[in-house]
Request: fold
Amino acid sequence: MPSSLPFLRIAAEEAFAPPEILGQYRKLIAAEPSLDPGFTSLMGFYLGSSPRAVQVMSRMTDLGEIRLRDMDETGIARQILSLTSPGVQIFDAATAVSLAGLSNDYLADGIRKHPDRFAGLAAIAPQTPAAAAKELERGVRRLGLKGAIVNSHTRGEYLDNPKFWEIFEAAAALNVPIYLHPNTPPPAMIGPFLERGLDGAIFGFAVETALHMLRIVVAGVFDRFPRLQIVLGHLGEALPYWLFRIDFMHRAMVAANRYPGVKKLERKPSEYLKENVCVTTSGMAWEPPILYAQSVLGVDRVLYAMDYPYQFVPEEVKVTDGLPISEADKKKLYQTNAERVFSLGSMGVEASL
Ligand code: CA
Reply:
């Protein structure tokens, strides 16, 4: 790994999965293929025998040699790991709670062996909000994890439903972020996406996750938990592009009292999206939207991510390396923003090399 760089590359949205959970996915697809067509399509593919699927999954379960070699080859100093989508959120509540614990123990084990190279986010089971809050607390306090990952909807339900708010309460109290990662659109939404193969990372992920994020904003979650921080991948799932129109229309809707469920917020929607949300560059190695996100949200709120092993394209690092921004801002993008948002502690350039 090059040691002459004035920053470390920390990749903030990198997936893993214990073999046990992949086995449970397989079982679920075989037993209930119509439970969630998006899940069956996505995991049915990645658990299949195509060369791409086999390659991705061989990397997915590894928290050692393979992953470290790939990181070294691409100059990634540290990965912030999270259980792959849809996490445990596809399972029934009891299975989900037990597999979240299993996944977090597996992750903590991997981090313990390579503490300079890995950090991680806790998998939680929103199906049982109290257990999810408890597992987040165990993950942070006992396992040293740095936040939680929620893979968007949980069996068609969204976190803006107040029954889930104890998860936000726990994250705010622990001062850790929630990474709101994509999931395939739920059964009620997926039809028009699936017909044209647009359900996954190509587009459906972003539409569904952006919807989830906006539901959280307009439900007033950040008025109730002003310190709560949420991290979005894929440069904010296109939301930074929409801020002006969202503010304009939200103000008009509230003034017209058009929807009983839409209430006035303490701030404009865009203000929450700028002050309670950070975004990562996962899967978006493209200069114009990275610069745009930095200009709209601020350079302190855009973090680097690769989206390994799904989008492991070594050349993509060069795009971020080559951005026309100052070295100081590049260090924020690659290193110090992640250290701040995930409380990693300063690693120093030499620390992990
Ligand atoms: Ca991802």
